[in-house]
Amino acid sequence: MAVKKSSSGLLKTGVIGSAFAAICCFSPVMVGLLSVLGLGALIGYLDYVLFPVLGIFLAITGYAIIRKRKESCNPSERGCQL
Question: How far is 21 from 25, CA to CA, in rounded Å?
Fold first, then answer.
């Protein structure tokens, strides 16, 4: 039995994940954290991980917005496309 995720839950997940990935990508938070933990050798690989993660969460956000728009669409309204 598959669990159906609501569009508002997907939207929250996408926005929070995108914000977290953006903070880690564009600020020295992860660099400082890895340095403190003694894992400074991994700093060069952060871009290979964080940019795809950011892209995935942005895609989830876009999908949730489209899905939420379709759920709230009333076919009798003008301009509503299903």
Answer: 6
CA distance 4 to 51: 28
Using one digit for the tens of pLDDT, what is the confidence trace for 43-59? 888 889 889 999 999 99
The residues spanned by each domain of the chain are 8-71
Residue with tokens 């940019």: 51
CA 39 to chain CA centroid, nearest Å: 25
CA dist 65 and 20 (Å) reads 19
Report whether 75 contacts 82 (CB < 8 A): yes
Instruction: Name every residue whose Cβ is closer than 8 Å to that of residue 66 and which is 6 or more positions away in sequence.
Output: none
Mean pLDDT calculated for residue range 4-30 = 86
pTM > 0.90: yes or no: no
